[in-house]
Amino acid sequence: TYQLCRDALTLLDIADDDRTRAEATGLLLLAAGWFWDQAAAGEVDTLQALAESGEQAARRLGEPGPLARFLYGRGLLAYVAEGYAEAIRLLRQAEALAAYDFDVVGRVLLMTRLGHALDSGEGLGAGLEVLQSAQKLLDGMGPDGGLDAREVARARGLLSRDIGVALYDLGDYAAAAPQLRGAVPALAGGAAEDQAWALCFRAQLEVVF
Predict the structure, then answer these.
(1) Please, what's the b/e burial string for 152-187 (b: 16 or more CB within 10 A of its CB; e: otherwise)?
(2) Cα within 13 Å of Cα(32), Cβ side
(3) Rounded distance, CA 59 to CA 70, Å?
(4) 68: helix, coil or strand?
(5) What is the DSSP string of 17-63?
(6) pLDDT by 10s per residue, the chain, length 209
(7) Are residues 150 and 117 in contact, defined by beta-carbon separation less than 8 angstroms?
(8) Are residues 173 and 205 in contact, defined by beta-carbon separation less than 8 angstroms?
């Protein structure tokens, strides 16, 4: 994804389009944020320049959905490159925009990341309210909402995992148990990293029982 988006942005230097630039830059930043390594870290100045160009394109476009998706990617980059405070600021902006125009699963994933960032950056329990709001949003969608079942399952799994972690960190092990135990099968067959963290957190839970 990272390399394909870099190639797309190179083509856009020849024939620009605000919508495509905003979407491609947002995806690029998502990829960089999820799979941060020394190679990506070495390109942080380039990524910041691309982010600025992508944000300008998204704001010129003037639509909340593309801008929310862009700011989500920008927030993930900030999470690994600049620290919690900047990541939280950007993710809060993205969540406010997403409330106007964003797919439910995408918004839930954004709120999941925001809740995790709040717990890490502002103290235990700071993100639990956001995570629980995301749970209500997903539950209120209906059985599937006409969306891809795999994406819905992944969103539910990530949300259960992070709610479980937040409850565990607060010492509410009984409430954390069903969340963490349910997250492992929900994330099976998806990204290995997602399920690996769910397994690690569940293992911590089992130690206290």
Answers:
(1) bbbbbbbbbbbbbbbbbbeeeeeebbebbbbbbebb
(2) 34
(3) 10
(4) helix
(5) -HHHHHHHHHHHHHHHHHT--HHHHTTHHHHHHHHHHHHHHHHHHT-
(6) 888 888 998 888 887 889 999 999 988 888 887 666 655 656 777 888 888 899 999 999 988 888 998 999 889 888 877 888 999 999 999 999 988 876 788 889 899 999 989 988 888 888 999 999 999 988 887 655 566 778 888 889 999 999 999 999 999 999 999 999 999 998 888 778 888 989 999 999 999 87
(7) no
(8) yes
Q: What's the token pair of residue 39?
A: 């190679």
| Residue among 141, 179, 183 at smallest CA distance from 163 | 179
What's the rounded Cα separation, in Å, for the pair 136 and 131? 9
How is residue 3 written in tokens? 């390399």
| Other CB atoms within 10 A of residue 197 CB | 17
Residues, the chain: 209
Assigned token pair, 66: 């593309």
